[in-house]
Amino acid sequence: MELLWRSFFQDAEEDRGMNRRRFKMHDLIHDLAQYVSKTDCTLVDTSAQNVKEKGRHLSFSFYNVSFFENLSTLVKANKIRTFILAYDKWKYDQGKIEELTLKKLIFTFRYLRALDLHGLNMKMLPNTIGTLMHLKYLDLSSNDIEVLPSYITKLVNLRTLNLSQCERLRELPTDIQKLVSLKHLDIEDCENLTHMPCGLGQLTSLQTLTLFVVSKGPPSSSKHCVGLVELNKLNDLRGKIKIKNLARLKDATPEFKAANLKDRQRLSELELDWNLESDDGVDASDDENSMDSLQSHESLKSLRVDGYMGVRVSSWLSFLTNLVVLSIDSCKKCQYLPPLYQLSSLRGLWISNMDGLEYMTDGDMNDEISASLASPSTFFPSLHTLFLGDYQNLKG
Hints:
It is built from 7 helices and 17 strands. By secondary structure, the protein is an alpha/beta fold. The protein is globular, with a radius of gyration of 25 Å. The mean pLDDT is 85.
């Protein structure tokens, strides 16, 4: 924002009311920025001869040059602080970096602060990663990694670990609490994760945690089984979080309350996913109690509820006055929704796969009709998109 105020950026756009902004830079400012940073920042050309000994930030195209052959020519710039190995997945079917090459890269640039290796189809990360003691930013997103080496917990200065879209990742390091500086852990779309590691709740500086997976079995039954209580001390969480496999928790109201979502005023996007493995033995009252206990702060801007098996949706939805987007999907036993027409900021409403729903409100329908006629400006005043789909019993 300071750069915007100083006219470094031309303007800013906010994405559908969320805490995501896009900034535009004027061509003249862009050219000037390139000119003044040409010594420090280098986009390596095909011959790898334009790398300067005093360079600090290096971007290397994975396919424009023979990466392994030219790596030896980069030793003269061994004090590189930023290394981005760029791979354009839209141009190439697949790219792959070999473990031997990775080890040489890590050995060559021992003073790295930022390392970007996204989208390279890596299946494993060498243990030598633990030698990059100055590393603050590590992007391993969109790779085929299944398990991270335990040596990664030696990166005590690491602030950002991006593992998003690592769809084969099964588990996080067991001693994750040793990453004492970690502020951002992005594991969005890591759908193969089976549990969260013990010690996660000790990372009290954590600001970004995009996914929390509820494990099978009761909390503390093994070193792998941790419950929602791990969220209790993460008071600085912000942005987006998805809580997955809520259906695995039965009669666990105290644990849901321990997550303390209602005090997380910096969270802007919340996804509650029950992810039923089967409909057998589902107790509607269990789900209703759990959802009541997951009440969120009124500052929330986006809420998605998926697979919930309660008969009614919690009334606290009606108090989310800043909500911009609401999606309720596959809640097949749900018969009642709280009044939603009063949500003054709501722009998008998606409700689908609700076999039990007959009416869009649990109140008197005449009251809502009267409200819409008497004061149209207060009846869904901001609604821009409405999607209703896959109903079997909808009457009104």
